[in-house]
Amino acid sequence: MESIPITLVRKKVKNARIVVKNSTTVELIVPLRYSQLNVDYLVESKREWILKALSKVKLRENAVQLQQNERFIRGKIYIIHERLIDTPFIDYEQARLYGRMNHFEGEGFVRILKKEAKLFLSKRLLELADEFGFRINKIQIRSQSSRWGSCSSEKNISLNWKLFLVPPFVCDYVLLHELVHTEHLNHSQNFWNRLSEVCPYVTQSHQWQKQFGRAVLQLHT
Ligand SMILES: [Zn+2]
Fold it and tell me: How many structural domains compose the chain?
């Protein structure tokens, strides 16, 4: 059972209540003479509700918080510099976006990102395949809301365009993960052994994905 980080606070209050302060603190505020039995009962009966509230708070804490003039690309915050030009451009070195504000909003911006993502991800996948000797058939860049990539038995690799938004080490991890699937179509020990031979960031990538993955998958939806 998932443990709940409960802090018991006895106060001069009439009724017990539960306050989810953040992902590591849930306060249980109870009257001074509230018995331990009642405390246990309250926690047990509200367990589902507390866990739900906690996961919502966690999601909010991990969300990529952006200002109005900021966008998230390749794991970095890019600043929009407004210019009255017709064709926007991205300065990857300086992490800046030049163009009209509406270039960087809504579907228009998603189109720009997808186009860049397609070029970048295809090129990077081929580079990594070449470096480590993997053979692939087709590459597809797709919009998916829940997964980063997949590999079929025909060695066709699908990649989520949002891999263009995550830090380079996480992107490489996913690309290498799918490339290793061209040799092992499962998550067996052999798969993980082979992956750790070619990718030094397995643990860090898993940590990053756990913390920020969902937030990034939800960007531009
Ligand atoms: Zn896999």
Answer: 2
